[in-house]
Amino acid sequence: LSKDQGRGGIAYFSEEITRAIRERIALEARLRRAIGHQELRVYYQPQIDIASGRMVGAEALVRWQDPDEGLIPPSLFIPIAEESSLIVKIGEWVLRETCRQGRLWLDMGLPPMTLAVNVSPHQFRRSDINALVATVLAETGFPAGQLELEITESGLMANQDNATNILNNLHAQGVRLAIDDFGTGYSSLAYLKHFPLDVLKIDKSFIDEIPHNKDDMEIAATIVAMGHTLGFKVLAEGVETPEQLAFLQKAGCDVYQGYIKSRPIPAEEFAELLLEQQGDG
Ligand code: C2E
Ligand code: MG
Ligand code: MG
Ligand code: MG
Could you name the domain of life of the organism this protein comes from (predicted)? Predict the structure, then answer.
């Protein structure tokens, strides 16, 4: 390599980095505007009680309705929001919007559903999450017992010092607490039992290869059994096939969520599903 080529390489490399940084800053600015311009949407994915086959709740999942690019999935903007303080604003908006919608459904006479909202590690790190939840519940009149907050294992591990305080306080408010994506982090069930958790959500990656992967089947069944021993309700994420559902039923899993029943859908469509279910008696 000649010196010139070497310099050219470095110049090219730094140009790439500069461009990536510029793109990120631009996306962040667009996202910031999107929040102000009300371009965020909450979609709801039904959660079904396995024994009765009836919907008992929904997970609230954010989408970005961009006027030019259409519906943008969270995987394309949550990680970026997570690196700035934007995630705090987005999380607050999703929580308020979900509770507002949940209250509206109750006022329409629809059966009470548990609504699960994702809380990012960044949001969880701020101890004012307790005050925010109290404020939003008071403002919207949504019952605390119908709100479930989902925290990932990594969110919990990253905040070991005040996690106990924050979770105890949320629990005291009557809010339900769930561990999201369980099995993908490094926490053990023995560790989780120290927290006032209500629900374990088995990560989709353990469900995907059922019934072909015996290891995953054993892991999923073990999580259900141990979760029950520790007093948790167990939910399976990402259920796509009847075989997976039959397996989970046999394993005694309590609730599932997945494309086999429904993708995440807009509020109006979820309300229609609830009305249909009500009609079925
Ligand atoms: P998550 O919380 O684990 O949510 C479950 C994800 O699995 C959702 O993806 C859902 O659409 C997807 N899913 C559910 N069932 C199936 C299935 O049967 N097959 C397949 N292929 N996928 C299924 P989504 O909506 O794209 O969200 C991805 C992630 O983005 C969420 O994972 C969560 O970590 C994050 N996210 C979404 N909304 C929010 C939010 O309001 N706040 C925060 N902090 N994170 C959010
Ligand atoms: Mg979740
Ligand atoms: Mg999950
Ligand atoms: Mg996930």
Answer: Bacteria
- What is the spatial distance between Cα 225 and Cα 245, in angstroms, rounded to a whole number? 16
pLDDT digits (tens, 9 = 90+) for 239-255: 999 999 999 999 999 99
C-alpha span between 77 and 80 (Å, rounded): 5
Q: What is the pLDDT of residues 189-226, one digit of tens each?
A: 888 888 999 999 999 999 999 999 999 999 999 999 99
Distance in angstroms (rounded) separating the CA atoms of residues 88 and 85 = 6
Residue nearest to atom 22 of ligand 1 (CA): 238
Please state the pTM of the whole predicted model.
Answer: 0.94
Give the residue, by CA position, lying nearest to ligand 1 atom 13. Answer: 238
Atom of ligand 1 nearest to the CA of 123: 44
Q: Classify residue 141 as left (phi > 0), alpha (psi -120 to 50) or beta.
A: left
**Is the predicted ipTM greater than 0.90, yes or no?**
yes
Rg (Cα) of the chain, in Å, rounded?
A: 21
The tens digit of pLDDT for each residue in 48-94 reads: 999 999 999 999 999 999 999 999 999 999 999 998 889 999 999 99
Ligand 1 proximal residues by C-beta, below 6 Å: 45, 61-62, 73-75, 78, 91, 94, 118, 120, 180-181, 204, 237-240, 257-259, 264
Report the residue among 115, 118, 184, 260 best suited for mutation to probe ligand 1: largest number of ligand atoms under 8 A from its CB. Answer: 118
Instruction: Please give the distance, rounded to the nearest whole angstrom, from the Cα atom of residue 118 to the centre of ligand 1.
Output: 9
Ligand 1 atom nearest residue 74's Cα: 30
Angle at 224 between CA 154 and CA 118, to 5 degrees: 35
